[in-house]
């Protein structure tokens, strides 16, 4: 999934996986979908010939008609409880009679609510605002000439006026889009489905996070853009409606094959998973230089723990063993698989402990050692190290420092404490005083990602936290891991609750075998940092199965790059 992230909007691509057909020759245009219980409902329309259809399995069982000849021009569909609400006009066109029609699941009309005064030029999408009360979000009609800024109204059933209005920026993402449908999820925000022309096979989903407003809830910029492009022999693949089920976005499309056959169908974006309050997707992971066990020829070290750039685009790393011997090294050509690494300094007295995290700032390497110590190592080898002791200002007696990153504010570092899966974020400054007080900022919610690693912060891109998921074999959790997720947190979303949820995560796309055909035994993400080429670089502890080694395993620790994402910092 190639994409970009500029700190505000994440742009990625996804390919829909086709599901069941939505047949109905009398009504040709899919206008809306909604799920009631385990059943998927759909409306198709041609003028005032509208059909309500249903399927019990939108991936395998074609939809069948529940009721035909609903005398409305359907424009959207949503559900609240066990009832369906159809956005419609009483003529083929937009505006003049815009109405919300309440239906039961048999297609019987139970009531109508005219929103013509609220949407005088018509509307093109409807979604339930909270899923419990009869409150709706309506997307106003816009054609190609004025689709750069989209207008929305929040309306209560039978209300004379909108409860609120807001706009969403719909420009700067490529082509100018045609509006199709909307869907709102209380955890993931507002999804706006659009597409290009009928024949380009280009579709787009804008995602709006209501926490991130440009103007006190009146204006929003999409936090995510998903380009949904279909390849193959199609004359048309036009996504028309959207909802969510089983942790994935479900879509309905108007499809015309290369021979002119209409094959309207459901589809699913399986490449993006929504769970809790976080969505995750696979990201390419390219191997770079290896970091051998003997960076210092006099000592063998096995645990590659952290990485940080020193300002001239050279990454420094620490590799240690048994929390006693730690080697600080660097690699100038870190994405060259044949490149070697260089030794800088070795510590044999346990000063750096496990060396969980490191951040380079103002000519010093600040390393998280054991017992809540931070050791500052000068880039001048002759200078002595400075050891700081960190205590939290919230008097948390279980405080256990694990990670560090500078650049949060002027001369200010971010610190991460991890205790029994609880992640607490602090900030502090390291100056002359050796006993440092850390100020509590928030608790990072890390559901579903058992092991937290290092952190990286950029004042435009936000906070990244590396995590790994150990395998579970026969109910027993092992230390072996090959699945890693880099979580992103937006500190702009921090509120009085002091709880911050990750908004998205990159799942590393690890192949089963390395370039030499050896099977990976473990693959553990340890630390990340951004290079001057705006690529996110990682260091990982890696073992492959290799019968030529006495242990049956060979260490292939090294550098990696998230190579399908470009980070825009300008």
TrEMBL record:
Origin: domain of life: Bacteria
Protein name (record): Uncharacterized protein
Gene source species: Blautia obeum
Lineage, top ranks: Bacteria, Bacillati, Bacillota, Clostridia, Lachnospirales
């Amino acid at each position: 999934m190639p994409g970009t992230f500029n700190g505000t909007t994440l742009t990625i691509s996804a390919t829909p996986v086709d599901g069941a057909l939505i047949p109905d020759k009398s009504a040709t245009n899919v206008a809306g979908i909604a799920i009631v219980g385990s059943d998927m409902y759909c409306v198709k329309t041609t003028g005032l010939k509208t059909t309500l259809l249903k399927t019990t399995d939108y991936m395998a069982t074609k939809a069948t008609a529940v009721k035909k000849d609903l005398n409305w021009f359907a424009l959207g569909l949503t559900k609240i409880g066990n009832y369906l609400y159809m956005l419609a006009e009483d003529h083929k066109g937009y505006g003049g009679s815009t109405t919300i029609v309440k239906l039961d699941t048999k297609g019987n009309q139970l009531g109508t609510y005219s929103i013509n005064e609220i949407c005088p030029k018509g509307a093109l999408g409807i979604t339930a605002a909270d899923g419990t009360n009869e409150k709706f979000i309506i997307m106003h009609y816009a054609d190609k000439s004025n689709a750069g800024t989209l207008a929305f109204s929040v309306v209560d059933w039978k209300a004379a006026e909108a409860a609120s209005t807001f706009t969403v920026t719909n420009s700067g993402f490529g082509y100018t889009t045609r509006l199709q449908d909307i869907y709102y999820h209380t955890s993931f925000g507002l999804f706006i489905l659009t597409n290009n022309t009928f024949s380009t096979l280009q579709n787009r989903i804008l995602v709006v996070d209501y926490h991130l407003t440009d103007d006190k809830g009146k204006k929003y910029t999409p936090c995510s853009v998903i380009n949904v492009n279909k390849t193959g022999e199609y004359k048309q693949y036009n996504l028309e409606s959207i909802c969510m089920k089983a942790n994935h976005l479900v879509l309905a499309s108007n499809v015309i094959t290369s021979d002119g056959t209409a094959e309207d169908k459901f589809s699913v974006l399986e490449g993006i998973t929504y769970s809790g309050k976080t969505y995750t997707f696979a990201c390419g992971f390219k191997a770079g230089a290896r970091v051998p066990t003997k960076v210092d020829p006099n000592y063998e070290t096995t645990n590659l723990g952290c990485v940080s750039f020193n300002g001239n685009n050279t990454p420094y790393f620490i590799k240690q063993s048994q929390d006693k011997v730690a080697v600080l090294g660097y690699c100038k050509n870190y994405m060259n698989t044949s490149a070697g690494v260089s030794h800088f300094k070795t510590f044999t007295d346990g000063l750096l402990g496990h060396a969980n995290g490191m951040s380079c700032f103002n000519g010093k390497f600040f390393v998280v050692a054991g017992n809540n110590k931070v050791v500052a190592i000068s880039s001048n080898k002759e200078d002595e190290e400075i050891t700081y002791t960190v205590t939290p200002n919230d008097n948390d007696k279980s405080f256990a420092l694990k990670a560090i990153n500078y650049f949060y504010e002027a001369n200010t570092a971010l610190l991460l404490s991890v205790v029994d899966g609880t992640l607490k974020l602090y900030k502090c400054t390291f100056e002359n005083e050796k006993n440092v007080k850390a100020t509590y900022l928030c608790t990072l919610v890390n559901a579903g990602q058992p092991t937290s690693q290092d952190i990286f912060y950029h004042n435009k891109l936000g906070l990244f936290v590396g995590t790994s998921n150990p395998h579970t074999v026969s109910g027993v959790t092992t230390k072996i891991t090959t699945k890693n997720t880099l979580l992103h947190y937006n500190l702009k979303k921090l509120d009085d609750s002091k709880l911050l949820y990750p908004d998205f995560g990159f799942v590393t796309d690890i192949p089963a075998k390395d370039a030499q055909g050896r099977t990976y035994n473990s693959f553990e993400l340890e630390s990340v940092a951004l290079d001057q080429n705006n690529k996110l670089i990682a260091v990982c502890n890696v073992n492959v199965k290799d019968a030529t080694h006495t242990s049956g395993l060979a260490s292939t620790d090294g550098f990696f790059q998230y190579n399908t994402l470009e980070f825009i910092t300008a």
